[in-house]
Amino acid sequence: MAMITCFDCNKEMSDEAKICPNCGKPRRPVGFLLGLGIFFLSPIFAWFTLRKGHTTIAKVISFIWMLTGGLVTIGLLAGAILPNILGKSENAKQEIACIQMESIYGVLKNYKLQNGAYPSSEDEMSILTKNFLNGAIPLDPWGNQYLMTSDGDGIEIISYGSDGKEGGLKKDADILLSTCNIK
């Protein structure tokens, strides 16, 4: 427990006391915003000591203070902004996978209309690829092949996600055409 001076009556009081025992007024601690202002505005004032007329030691201390303040500011901004930016690219890839699967599904429906059934063999898939998909089925956004399964009536198109393996959670989760919400 340290002793501090009351702002109102200038008498000593405990730094843990909420009110001054001498005058009864509440203690005024340095607020969060004031602390931020002191920290971030100090480098601006330190800039002025780098001009002529100040000692070398004052210039060195001011330069170090400005550098520290700048690095902390950059770190705080990066910590607040980068997670939002980095998370968006994975969501975009998942949306692209859904759009590609919708496109492939449209081609498969067209194939079924012309041939009475979805392709069920490797030969039929090669005909589909050659005639309907300009020679190749596109790869998913992570560079992997889409998997297509059919139960006779319907068809499911699957991307194994960023890890390229069956299963997974969050960004590694499989993406199924039936679960895509294309708008």
Distinctive features:
mainly alpha, two-stranded antiparallel ribbon, 3 helices, Glycoprotein, Type 4 Pilin, 183 residues, three-stranded antiparallel β-sheet
What does this 3D model show about the protein?
- This protein is mainly alpha-helical.
- Among the domains are: 1-29; 88-179, Glycoprotein, Type 4 Pilin (2-Layer Sandwich).
- It is 48% helix and 9% strand.
- The chain is built from 3 helices and 5 strands; from the N terminus they run E-E-H-H-H-E-E-E.
- The chain has helices spanning 32-48, 56-115, 122-132, and strands at residues 3-5, 12-14, 147-150, 155-159, 175-176.
- It has a 3-stranded antiparallel β-sheet, covered by helices on one side. Strands 1-2 form a two-stranded antiparallel sheet.
- Helix 1 (32-48) packs across helix 2 (56-115).
- It starts with a strand and ends in a 7-residue tail after the last strand.
- The model has no long low-confidence stretch (mean pLDDT 79).
Average pLDDT confidence is 79
Low-confidence region ranges:
none
Within CATH, the superfamily of one domain carries the name Glycoprotein, Type 4 Pilin
- SS elements, strand count: 5
- The gyration radius over C-alpha positions equals 33 Å
The H-and-E topology, N to C, reads as EEHHHEEE
| CATH class wording of one domain | Alpha Beta
Number of helices: 3
Shape call: elongated
CATH fold-level assignment of one domain = Glycoprotein, Type 4 Pilin
Share of helix, binned: 40-55%
Largest sheet: 3 strands, antiparallel
Cα distance spanning the termini: 62 Å
CATH architecture of one domain: 2-Layer Sandwich
Major sheet: arrangement of strands: 3-4-5
Strand content: 5-15%
